[in-house]
Design goal:
The complex is a heterodimer. Chain A is of the alpha/beta class. Chain A is built from 14 helices and nine strands. In chain A, 49% of the residues lie in helices and 14% in strands. In chain B, α9 packs across α10. The chains are: A alpha/beta, B alpha/beta. Chains A and B meet through α2, β1, α9, β9 and α11 of A and α2, α3, α10 and α12 of B.
Chain lengths: 292, 467
């Protein structure tokens, strides 16, 4: 059964639909996504880099056949970039055009009415996400990059799915989008924001899930090798390293091994390709020492 | 069920995990929306709604087991698929055990079978039998159960479990060092599962005996940032160590932010121009670049004798994780002689490596290896005093237990007068200061502040103060 924009019938359907969108969720991921759809709450996703936080939002959009609206956060992001902005140049043009057409320039009320209307509004991602007719998934990526004060921009949207524009009134969602916020946890998010969200931590996958992901993403990978790669990655993650390999790195490694036509994890190949998995020289050396 | 959720939330708050009333309401509606569900799903539903920080997971899991181990959350039906008389071994297993005989060896064999098959339900049942037989639980005692779990594991002989697992799995993970390493990880993981099964069972028994709230109180779970440095067990030291990384990241962001907001930098032309477009090209609002501010230079002088070694280690680890936020960090360690170890931190690949080098190479023993603050300060004055400047912040780490040597507090005064600031971090509870051979009072008058620093939370607050 294909999921519709209306949401999912149950947790299992979430898993199925995401799997069809080539994302293999853990039980925890499916449950939280399902809860978000029935409780109409945003999901705050945290976890190490490269474990599929952003990918979850993309897959969810594919699974629901919804449009993905993405807002990449950065330091200095403001409401003009996140929510809406008046189209100044178009407003100016409108006023000049009115003058050229001989309209009464003194009739300011009419002009005002005119230039502060929807036509002159540039919808930025947040406004766009709630004014779409079709189902939408709103991805607010790396929310921890904006300043604490800027978070307040999101609060109205996250709790009430509406945005207030002073000159214009309140825009309510025509259709509530599914909202996913990701954070790399570089700072504490505000209580107000956290309270409005469901929390999901996507950590490193279990061996079984990692093997399944490897086989899904690298179809030509033999099953036996996929299992070994997953085992090896799990072993590396049990070591005390600066940065553990994430799924994206094991995927890169799998492709590397395939390219080198490796059938098995032999010591020479592993030693020479470790730097695909590990990003710090100190980590590579530690792993080498461990492997003798 | 609402009552149970509310007392669960209370227990979480007791452990300093913040849970708001709204979050409890959310949890209730989540459980209601899900209908009839199994325990893992129930756990996820509560976690997603009540917890907002991965660092709180361990405490959450522990308390969840306490509060929801015995009852099924959404129905009165008991979820244990197979349960023998009075929580004893279920009939099918009892038969295998040969009518209660067989002993620990037989039990161990079956547990290993269950672990290898990945049959958690069976492992849980066997754990129930093992705890009933070997745990020796006494009813009504207010204990955390660590001892019962220990006794059960001892009877099962963990070393033997390791050996058997290794034997069973030998060769399955390939040959050579790689196979060996993977195998070792696999075995570790299985044994950890066994431990968890036993501990969960002990907790379940305790709850059955004394009720959720009483057990939650005796367990007193701590977040990593609340664990006392001086009393941390080996496991807890690991937890603190792992908590330092994320904590340092957040702290660094805060320090950097605060520096930026203090003053404005040069004009940011691009943003000013962009802003002016909204006003027909008139720069109504000026935008500024973030300023570059001078960062403090840190001198750490750490006592690394046995009693306070863990504390020094965590502080060094945190400060080095933050070294970007300081102009320079120089570190000195002493027991009864002092040695500079900055070089180890700069050359070693990780703080871990550096600490190893510090322990093996630093020259910190002068006479007998008993802490001597006086002599160490004297050496510091001789060798390093001229390098202090008005930009330096000096931090002394130690309990000021001087083994009745001369305190030489005057030397600390000299150090203070050359530096911009001098702080003392003491890992002992303030009520112990100046008792026995602690001479913190003699030193404190030369310090800008003497700060009690017993856990990560206090350490974090201190670093934020000076950063």
């Amino acid at each position: 059964m294909k999921a519709t924009g209306e949401g999912f019938a149950g947790i299992d359907q979430v898993s199925e639909a995401l799997a069809q969108a080539s994302y293999l969720p853990s039980q925890e991921i499916s449950t939280t996504v399902y809860l978000a759809t029935v409780l109409h709450k945003p999901i705050l996703v945290e976890g190490p880099a490269g474990t599929g936080k952003t990918e979850l939002a993309k897959a969810l959009a594919r699974a629901l056949d919804a449009e993905l609206v993405r807002l990449q956060c950065y330091e200095g992001l403001d409401d003009a970039k996140a929510i809406y902005e008046w189209n100044y140049s178009k407003q100016l043009l409108r006023i000049q055009a009115a003058r050229a057409a001989g309209e009464d320039p003194a009739d300011w009320d009419a002009v005002k009415e005119n230039i502060f209307s929807e036509e002159f509004l540039l919808a930025r991602p947040l406004l766009r996400a709630i004014s779409l007719e079709d189902p939408a998934v709103l991805l607010i990526d790396e929310i921890d990059r904006v300043e604490l004060e800027t978070e307040a921009l999101f609060l109205e949207l996250l709790s009430d799915f509406q945005i207030t524009i002073p000159e214009f009134g309140t825009v309510s969602a025509t259709r509530q989008p599914i909202v996913i916020l990701t954070s790399n946890n570089t700072r504490e998010l505000s209580e107000a924001l956290k309270r409005r969200c469901l929390f999901l931590h996507i950590g490193y996958p279990s061996k079984e899930r990692e093997k399944a992901i490897l086989m899904l993403k690298v179809p030509s990978l033999p099953e036996e090798l996929a299992a070994k790669i997953a085992d090896f990655a799990a072993m590396l993650r049990s070591l005390d390293l600066k940065k553990h390999p994430s799924i994206s790195e094991t995927l890169d490694w799998a492709v590397t091994l395939l390219t080198l036509d490796a059938k098995d994890l032999d010591p020479a190949t592993v030693a020479s390709t470790l730097n695909v998995l590990l990003k710090y020289q100190a980590d590579v050396e530690k792993a080498r020492a461990k492997l003798g | 069920m609402i009552d149970q959720l509310v007392s669960f939330a209370d227990a979480l708050r007791e452990a300093k995990v913040p849970v708001s009333m709204t979050e409890v309401v959310d949890a209730t509606s989540a459980v209601r929306a899900l209908g009839e569900i199994d325990r893992p799903t129930f756990r996820t539903a509560l976690f997603a709604t009540m917890i907002k920080d991965e660092g709180h997971r361990e405490v959450f899991d522990l308390l969840f087991d306490v509060f929801f181990a015995n009852r099924h959350p959404t129905s009165s039906r008991d979820e244990e698929p197979e349960r023998g008389e009075g929580g004893e071994v279920p009939p099918s297993e009892a038969q295998q055990l040969g009518g209660g005989g067989g002993g620990a060896d037989e039990l161990r064999r079956m547990m290993i079978e269950a672990m290898l098959a990945g049959d958690m339900a069976r492992l849980a049942r066997l754990a129930r039998a093992a705890v009933a037989r070997h745990g020796g639980l006494e009813k009504g005692r207010a204990v955390s159960g660590v001892y019962y779990a220990y006794r059960t594991l001892k009877q099962l002989d963990v070393e033997m479990v390791y050996a058997k697992l290794r034997e069973e799995l030998a060769g399955t993970e390939g040959e050579g060092a790689i196979g060996e390493a993977i195998l070792a990880t696999h075995v570790e993981q299985l044994v950890a599962e066994l431990r968890q099964a036993i501990e969960a069972e002990v907790r379940r028994m305790l709850v059955e005996d004394r009720g959720e709230e009483a057990v939650a109180r005796t367990l007193r779970p701590l977040l990593p940032e609340d664990i006392d440095f001086m009393q941390a067990s080996r496991d807890e030291i690991q937890k603190i160590r792992h908590a330092i990384g994320p904590l340092a990241r957040k702290l660094a962001t805060r320090l950097a932010k605060r520096r930026m907001s203090r003053r404005k930098g040069p004009l940011d032309f691009r943003r000013t121009f962009r802003e002016s477009l909204g006003y027909g090209g008139v720069p109504v609002k000026l935008e500024f670049r973030p300023p570059r501010l001078s960062k403090p230079e840190i001198f750490i002088i750490a006592d690394i004798s046995g009693s306070v070694a863990a504390f020094a280690r965590f502080t060094l680890q945190l400060v080095y994780a933050l070294s970007e936020e300081f102009k320079k960090v120089r570190s000195f360690v002493f027991i009864d002689a002092i040695d500079e170890v900055t070089g180890y931190f700069e050359s070693a690949g990780s703080v871990e490596e550096a600490l190893k080098l510090v322990n093996t190479r630093a020259n910190v023993v002068h006479v007998d290896g008993h802490t001597n603050y006086g002599h160490s300060f004297e050496q510091f004055r001789e060798n390093y005093l001229p390098q202090l400047s008005k930009k330096s912040t000096v931090i002394v780490l130690g309990d000021a237990r001087n083994n009745y040597h001369a305190s030489r507090a005057d030397l600390l005064g000299e150090i203070r007068s050359r530096a911009s600031r001098l702080y003392w971090l003491n890992p002992e509870p303030a009520s112990y200061w100046n008792s026995g051979d602690s001479v913190i009072n003699e030193y404190s008058r030369y310090c800008d502040a003497v700060v009690e620093c017993r856990n990560l939370r206090q350490l974090e607050a201190f670093i934020e103060l000076i950063g």
